[in-house]
From TrEMBL:
Protein name: DUF4902 domain-containing protein
Tree of life domain: Bacteria
Length: 130
C-alpha cells in the first residue's frame, strides 16, 4: 500500500467525524479543495485493477470541509470514481431555504464538486510512484 500527502491524510471515513459544515448547494462558487493524499489499496496485480481512495480538503469560514472517494484504474493512465454517488464528506448541503437536501440530491452536487478538481492527475501521479 502506498500513500502520498502534503499534509497528514486522515482515513476517508474519518471525514464523518469532522464537524458538519452547512453549505447552500445552489451557490455557484469555485471549489478550492486541495489534495491531502491518495492511498493505493490494490496494487493492480494480474487480474485486478489498481484502486484506492483520495482525500481533499478546503478551509471555509465555517471550518474545514473534506471530500473523499474510492477510485479505480480503468485503463493505462485513466482513473475514475469507483462510485460517483458515494462521496464521503462532512459537508451538509442545504437548499435555498436552509432545508437539508436528500442524500440523492446531495450526491449529485458532490459529484459535480469532484469533477471540478484535478484529482485524476494527482491519483495517477501516486499510482506511477507506487
Amino acid at each position: 500500500m502506498h500513500t502520498t500527502s502534503s499534509v497528514s491524510m486522515p482515513p476517508p471515513w474519518a471525514l464523518y467525524a469532522w464537524p458538519a459544515i452547512f453549505c447552500q448547494a445552489s451557490i455557484k462558487r469555485k471549489a478550492r479543495f486541495v489534495h491531502l493524499g491518495t492511498r493505493v489499496t490494490t496494487s493492480g496485480s494480474r487480474g485486478s485493477p489498481c484502486a484506492g481512495q483520495t482525500v481533499w480538503s478546503e478551509y471555509l469560514d465555517e471550518g474545514q470541509a473534506g471530500l473523499a472517494w474510492d477510485w479505480i484504474q480503468i485503463a493505462e493512465g485513466v482513473v475514475a470514481m469507483a462510485n460517483p454517488l458515494c462521496v464521503v464528506t462532512n459537508l451538509r448541503l442545504v437548499g435555498e431555504h436552509g432545508e437539508p437536501l436528500a442524500a440523492r440530491e446531495s450526491a449529485l452536487h458532490l459529484s459535480r464538486m469532484v469533477c471540478q478538481l484535478p484529482w485524476q492527475d494527482e491519483v495517477w501521479r501516486v499510482v506511477q510512484a507506487a
